[in-house]
Write a structure and sequence with these properties.
The chain is α/β, with parallel strands linked by helices. The protein has 13 helices and 13 strands. The relative contact order is 0.10.
Length: 390
């Protein structure tokens, strides 16, 4: 009897599933697009991308587009989330939020405290990445369904991760890093840009799926912020170089001139260290070390000769110095320290930083740039000499 009473007491203490919901009752919000409003003077136009739960079923046979987009306008993001219940036929669940896209127009006006709702709220996590929709709206970006990846959210993330591994223009930046940078001193924000490679030829997404040259989302540079406002862009190799300076480059390629043609070197490992020197004049110093391998040669070079290899290393070092100096100078021209030289200075010389932090962007803009590069070729490939056509 005592055992029975004890068992009943334990069962009473075990919490029930009062908040349990069936999968077909949930609207899983996996992405949000945030634009300036069309029909309101202030506030936001918010697009919620909701995945069809049947797509997650291992036994089902999904057909059609796996997501649906619902757009509402409201004064705040939380109000937009609640207003979305007008058109979303299921309970809005944002615990699976894995992407936020902000339009360039909104970013140029200032993001202000746009991330407060995500940080303060109890549902959404702050691990989702943040992107800037370049030259178009966030709503349009989330509205493109591609043949290779019919889930727009997964397409944006996968394309970015793929580029980060192979070239390094873009990278995944989680929202908690965005919030930390906006709240910190001595470093401004960089965010990856995405855009449509071309306009949709039809409003019918099925037409895009059947197009041999479909409209797709592509990574497009890094957005340069000054405080909370977008002020410019790093494009192409300049975006790659910015990630190089920040030591956030997995691997990339460098074409080097070779007898009026080119050879290609691939970086395998790289490390950059930044430092702010104050004497004799303020100087932004970047020291880079990288290991490379030769993967393509379009000229006649004896790659067994150590002197030839050292000359190639010197050519690569000169090229990287030129590229990195140009990238930092772009940041200087915008008066925004996106590399964190100020943060580094605040740690190494806190007394100087405390005295001059309010004028740091001016000091940064006028500082000298000193770049040192040490490149090593560790592998010249499987052949010693390029083949010669007979």
């Amino acid at each position: 009897m005592k055992r029975l009473i004890t068992l009943l007491f334990i069962l009473i203490l075990i919490p029930g599933c009062s908040n349990y919901r069936e999968l077909n009752e949930l609207g899983l919000v996996i992405a949000m697009g945030i634009d300036v409003p069309k029909y309101m003077e202030n506030g936001y136009r918010v697009t919620f991308q909701v995945i069809n739960p049947s797509q997650l079923s291992p036994t089902g046979s999904p057909t059609g587009i796996p997501v649906s987009n619902y757009t509402v306008e409201a004064e705040t993001l939380v109000d937009a989330y609640r207003r979305a219940s007008i058109i979303i036929p299921r309970y809005n669940d944002v615990t699976h939020l894995s992407l936020v896209v902000i339009s360039e127009e909104l970013a140029r006006n200032g993001t202000n405290l746009i991330f407060d709702a995500f940080e303060r709220g109890k549902q959404a996590k702050t691990t989702f990445p943040v992107f800037i929709a370049r030259g178009t709206s966030a709503e349009n970006v989330l509205g493109v369904v591609e043949p290779l990846e019919s889930n727009p959210t997964k397409s944006v993330r996968s394309t970015t991760e793929n580029n980060q591994k192979f070239y390094g223009i873009s990278k995944i930046i989680p929202s908690h890093e965005v919030i930390a940078t906006l709240s910190s001193e001595g470093k401004d924000l960089l965010l990856p840009g995405i855009k449509l490679n071309k306009k949709l030829t039809s409003k019918n997404q099925t037409d895009n799926l059947n197009n041999i040259k479909p409209s797709v989302v592509e990574v497009s540079g890094l957005a340069i912020f000054k405080k909370d406002k977008l002020v410019g862009w790093f494009d192409g190799e300049m975006a790659r170089n910015a990630n190089f300076i920040l030591s956030e480059l997995d691997t990339t390629s460098f074409p080097i001139p070779c007898e009026k043609k080119y050879m290609t070197l691939i970086t395998k490992r790289s490390k950059a260290a930044i430092k702010t020197l104050l004497k004799p004049i303020p100087t932004l110093q970047v020291n880079i070390a990288l290991n490379t391998e030769i993967t393509e040669v379009n000229c006649n070079k004896d790659l067994t000769d150590t002197k030839v290899l050292r000359d190639i290393e010197k050519d690569l070092e000169k090229e990287i110095i030129r590229l990195v100096q140009g990238t930092i100078q772009i940041s200087q021209s915008r008066g925004t320290d996106v590399f964190g030289f100020g943060t580094k200075l605040s740690i190494e010389n806190p007394s100087y930083w405390k005295k001059h932090k309010k004028e740091w962007n001016t000091i940064f803009s006028k500082a000298k740039v000193d770049v040192n590069v040490k490149a090593s070729i560790n592998d010249s490939g499987l052949v010693t000499d390029p083949y010669e056509p007979k």
